[in-house]
Design goal:
By secondary structure, the protein is mainly α. It has a domain at about 225-308. The protein is built from 17 helices and no strands. Helix 7 (about 120-135) runs parallel beside helix 9 (about 160-175), helix 11 runs antiparallel to helix 12 and helix 15 crosses helix 17.
């Protein structure tokens, strides 16, 4: 019995070997790759979905570590997420934030270049835009860096309206390359005609160029679209000052402060108006004339407006 059982087992083993050998021979003979077989059963898609799910878990862990201030572990999980899912936009975005926080230009530029290779141009362009925004407005402005990242964003996607507007506004707000700023913002407005922020930027660049009537037209339109935006009210108030329409200027600046009690620009403008008005009352007519010729041009303008 034992010999018969052993012979039966050996027979089964031989049959199995023959079957496996036949399969291997057929695969080689027909040129079918194992990957193609997997593809036929959609195994590659299943594996891809699994990788993306695991990547999402790493991102959730990274988010928790970021909230807890453990940025080293957060970076490690984000890097693992990108290894599993090289097209994960959120992982790129969070890593960029961490590298900016460290002021790590080398790794920041490396991850941006990696994003360029992996993501659609429009997404990579938006990442560059966000980096430009950070260097333009967060902490101590670093305008050359901001301009560099905005330029790359527009190279990747010439129709990135946000990059066009933000770059143009940054130039205008700092009194730099006003003609270029105007062209950038014009294109942004052409792309998004009813975007209040872009319309405001158009008005602001005209204000910076001294084209106050044009600025007024654009800024009134912006405020009509977004009446509860403190920055837009502030810009409109500054144009009214330039046009010697002080009561309207005061009304807009006060609205800006009601909307945002911490709006420094509006507070400063109102304080200067009050101080100059008091100072004007103390000056005799011949002193006023002298003061207006010697003082800072902006102060002189306000004095003239208050006196009128």
């Amino acid at each position: 019995m034992q010999r018969r059982h052993l012979a039966l087992v050996l027979a089964y083993v031989m049959i199995l070997i023959l079957i496996v050998s036949g399969i291997i021979f057929c695969v080689k003979r027909s040129g079918i790759a194992i990957r193609r077989i997997a593809h036929a059963f959609h195994l590659d898609k299943i594996m891809g979905m699994s990788d993306r799910m695991i990547a999402s878990r790493h991102i959730r862990k990274a988010t928790r570590y970021m909230r807890g201030g453990d940025f080293k572990r957060a970076k490690a999980h984000l890097q693992r997420a990108l290894k599993l899912d090289p097209k994960n936009y959120v992982a790129y975005r969070f890593l960029i934030i961490l590298y900016i926080r460290e002021d790590n230009q080398r790794d920041l530029n490396a991850i941006l270049q990696r994003a360029e290779s992996a993501l659609p141009k429009s997404q990579a362009s938006y990442l560059y835009t966000e980096v430009g925004d950070y260097y333009a407005y967060q902490g101590v402005p670093r305008l050359p860096l901001a301009e560099r990242y905005y330029e790359r964003a527009i190279q990747l996607d010439p129709n990135n309206a946000t990059a066009l507007n933000n770059y143009g506004y940054t130039l205008a707000d700092n009194g730099r390359q006003l003609n270029k700023a105007e062209k950038l913002i014009k294109k942004a407005v052409e792309l998004e005609k009813n975007n209040a922020a872009f319309i405001d930027s158009m008005g602001w660049v005209y204000y910076k160029q001294g084209r106050y009537d044009e600025a007024l037209k654009w800024l009134k339109k912006a405020v009509k679209l977004e009446p509860n935006d403190a920055e837009l009210r502030y810009h409109l108030g500054m144009v009214y000052i330039a046009l010697n329409r002080l009561e309207e200027a005061r009304a807009q600046l006060e609205k800006a402060i009601r909307l945002n009690p911490n709006h420094i620009g509006a507070q400063r403008a109102l304080n200067e108006m009050e101080q100059l008005k008091k100072h004007q009352r103390r000056l005799r007519p011949h002193e006023m004339a002298y003061h207006k010729t010697k003082c800072n041009p902006t102060v002189g303008l306000l004095l003239a407006l208050i006196e009128s």
